[in-house]
Protein 1
Amino acid sequence: MKFKALAIDIDGTITDMDRRLNLRAAEKLRALDVPVVLATGNVLCYARAASKLIGVCCRIIAENGGVVTDGFDREPIVSDHIHECEEAFSFLSQVLHMEKLDSSLRKTEIVLRRDFDIDAARALLETTGLDVEIIDTHFAIHIKSRKINKGTGIAKMAELMGLEVSDFVAIGDSVNDIEMLDAAGFAIAVGNADNVAKGIADYVTSTTYGDGTAEAIDYLLSEGML
């Protein structure tokens, strides 16, 4: 099957662990004949800058699906679940020391430094009845709505592009990519991916981080899938 678009995570998938952009991966993404969607847990301004620098501007799923835009100057579609996330943070921070990151830029979720007991936080959260979850992407910890994820983000993006979700190949590495990988027509996990992401992927690269993405694109092109 030939797919019509590619959705790809940024940190840990196009970059290495310290967020240095893999230039081989960027070059291969830039050369594709299909639209490339950047799907990240990071904020919109970061993703917009990355899309410009990589050369795939500017279809973006940001904040783990909470923010979606199909053009650099387009008004983004922003979910309205931040208040429940704020309520969860207010409750948890009475017991645990939690430091917010990017708080002035986040529109749909709360992101925290990775220096507290996430299992304790999850156990406390279960007592609240709030429809939010805590996920660890290895770069930060996110308090986010269960209703929003990269899977809902790719569905909205497909709608904006006049495509089906099954028209997409998705590439990722972390727990926040699972819904996107599961929804896409073909899913690839890079070699450094979490085991749960590898478990649902149709193809797992032998190489890691951005080298894995370069390998994935070579594979897709060799198989006539893009």
Note: The first helix runs from residue 23 to 31.
Protein 2
Amino acid sequence: MEYTIQTIGSVHSPYRQKFGVARQPGLVPAAAVCIELNPDFHADSVRGLADFDYIWLHFIFHGVLDEGWAPLVRPPRLGGKRKMGVFATRSPHRPNHLGLSLLKLERIESGKPVRIWCSGADLIDGTPVIDIKPYIPFIEAKPQAKAGFVNGAPQTLNIRWQNPACRDALPSELVALIEQSIAQDPRPAYQDIPERRYGMALSGYQIHFHIVGKEALIVSACADETGRQAV
């Protein structure tokens, strides 16, 4: 039997591309997003939702729809060297390309359109949303549950700015977003090329950095519109 799923809204996110997005929700607390509901959904649709601290967001991995899927994938947490069944992972390359994120609910604007602001997101700009549900801790929190090959939080990189004046010229919220995102090491798990310069499109800026060992060196942060370095 086939079903048709209609989107209920979309995400406005500082992440403009897949590279650099946190691999799981909550790893980058500074990653704030706005979920804008379609006009069909007015204030009644979110009545009572503001009383919850977190929401489950169901969405579509639209950035990889044309890449298909495979029964075996290489999780980054295993260094990209071991294969696991797709259903034992959070890989976006799934049969139906459906995603699930637990986001911190910050506030709701019950206007036209309805906007739901969240933080700790792992979503790229334009992500189609298919459902929203409240998070209920006494039912869904299982801190003692086994987590398979996912053993604890991932290690993070130390962050250093090549030019501290570049950091100081940026809004503090943007600095936090940049540093927290890069600290998660956005490189493919199999890639370790110290001389390589990486670029990330983030919140209207192009960020360039190197990674050597356990340290990320941020070289520049340039506004997309002018290419002018923020120094």
Note: The two ends are 58 Å apart (CA to CA).
Protein 3
Amino acid sequence: MYQKEIKQGNENIIFHSIYFTEDSFSIPDLTKITNMTFPTVKRVVNEFLEKDIIVEWTLSTGGVGRRAVKYKYNPDFCYSIGVSINEEKIKFILINTIGKIFQSKIIDTENENFIDFLTKNLKDFIKEIDEKYLAKVIGVGISIPGIYNKEDHFLEFNNTDRYESAVIKEIEQDINLPIWVENEANMSILAEAIINKYKELEDFTVINISNKVTCSTFHKFGNKSEDYFFKASRVHHMIVDYENQKKVGDCISFKVLKNEILRAFPKLNSLEDFFSNKTYRESKKGKEILNKYLTYMGIILKNLLFTYNPKKLIICGDLSQFGSYLLDDVLNIVYEKNHIFYRGKETIIFSNFKGSSSIIGAALFPIVDNLM
């Protein structure tokens, strides 16, 4: 068993080393990076070649004598399915190992047994996947706005539906694929840490603002690929307006902003119409709605900065689609004159995933858990 664990650990370390580089590499390159012996690296490289994880690229140039063979990582050696759930819609995607989306689907949630509905539509999505991809699918990651409590063996898809975690095993048997489930903020953290530019940070915090408001923190505490953890917190239920006893979710969820804007401007069909048109966005009513919303948002962002002191505070979720319109106002509200935060305005950013971070993170979870 000990030898098997060492072997698996070596494979994970080498996989981690090649996953995070776009450059070609040789066996001598990997021995330097990993501090492993040439025979150990050669054995793992041969295994990776057999599994199509890497491909031969070219012969290295320069020097004298026999040149080393170069290899490159193959991001399409396997695929994974991501599922994102809220009370209105279920989204499905198929990605490769670096997050490239090959297939997607969105369905409206219907008022019936949720597990049956989810299973049926997941099976339908799997049937629609091209066989050349399906043969290499290694699992399904599901992002939920509620919690997955591994200690007490239950999960909440929303505030009203709680299930025994054994239901996941039943779905696995039905679709014949393993399933990973996590809170949507943790899934967003995974996407930001693994395939976005923040993977080098030792710590950062994500606030995921969709129909629910969730938060997660990421901490890296060592040099090994597995030396990190992330943990979600339920900020949705925190009081942000004590006088009126309003919770964070009552004030800054994406649903709240969307409903207020569409109620104020009934001719609009979407928030994109509002933000892209200055006539609406900079009208008296439009400014009033945004100022109220961002003031509440500023309160929770300040609390997160004081609580976690992150190197980055990344705003994810549906709201991040409109980050370019909101960032300057958010920063002006949070970083008032003579503020006492340890870091400056560069700390707060909107995610580049434009609302897709949680579902991409969900799809990455089987890959990360299996290989890193």
Note: The chain has 14 helices and 17 strands.
